[in-house]
Amino acid sequence: MNRVLITAAMALGVSLSLPAAAQFKKPEDAVKYRSSAFHLIAAHFGRINAMAQGKAPFDAKAAQINAAVLSTLAKLPWDAFPANSANVGRTEAKPEVWSQPDKFKTASQELIDNVAKLDAAARTGNLDQIKAAAGATGKSCKSCHETFKKD
Ligand code: ASC
């Protein structure tokens, strides 16, 4: 990696780890950011999951690309839940996000970990491994939604 890329990567790391409220001018901006990230997560996971469930033809290269994108996307929403963005705009977040922060943190880390395993599975090109990892990832989506997302 050259120096420009290293500097850019460090800047990205710093901006991703800033306190949630510091990253958004208005609470609505945080809602937009996190819901956009979740839309992209659903799109890229959906492409893999369709293959895993036999609803789309298996394309190992496409699975690999989508899983790689997903492994970055899975890290994005979690800094976009500042306390002033509960019940703002069109948020689908339940108050439990803020009243049970440890549980929310654990759930978010579970997604990140499962997506990392899905990424590893996709790199092998083995459909059975992808199916298992996609199943676990879908479960972490679902269990988090049960507590933290409005219907
Ligand atoms: C998806 C998607 C979700 C989850 C959930 C898993 O593909 O958009 O919200 O999986 O349905 O049960």
Account of the protein in words:
This protein has helices at 3-16, 27-52, 60-73, 96-99, 101-124, 127-148. The protein is globular, with a radius of gyration of 16 Å. The chain has 151 residues and is an all-alpha fold. The mean pLDDT is 92. The longest helix has 26 residues, at 27-52. The protein contains 6 helices and no strands. α2 packs antiparallel against α6 and α3 (60-73) packs antiparallel against α5 (101-124). The structure holds ascorbic acid. Ascorbic acid binds at residues 42, 45-46, 49, 138, 141-142.
Return the average pLDDT rounded to an integer. 92
| Cα end-to-end separation | 44 Å
Name the bound molecules. ascorbic acid
Radius of gyration: 16 Å
Give, in order, the helices and strands: HHHHHH
* Annotation field: number of helices: 6
List low-pLDDT spans.
none
Tell how many strands the DSSP assignment holds. 0
Strand content: under 5%
Structural class: mainly alpha
The description of the largest β-sheet is:
none
**Dominant shape:** globular
Helix content: 55-70%
Fold blueprint:
Layout: H1 3-16, H2 27-52, H3 60-73, H4 96-99, H5 101-124, H6 127-148
Ascorbic acid (ASC) binds next to helix 2 and helix 6.
Describe this protein with a few key phrases.
151 residues, mainly alpha, globular, binds ascorbic acid
Short structural description:
This protein is mainly alpha-helical.
